[in-house]
Amino acid sequence: MTPKGVIRMNDMLSEIKKAAERIRRNRYAQARVVFLAGSLVRGEGTSTSDLDLVVLFERVPRAYRESFIHDRWPVEAFVHDPKTLEYFFREIDRPTGFPSLPTMVDEGIEIPEPSEFSDPLKRLAAAVLGEGPPKWTEQDLSNSRYAITDMIDDLRDSRSTQEMHATATLLYSTLANHYFRSKGLWSAKGKAIPRRLNSLDVGLAGKFLNSFGKFFTENCVTAVIELAEEILAPTGGFLFDGHKLEAPETWRVE
Question: What is the pTM of this model?
Answer without folding.
Answer: 0.88
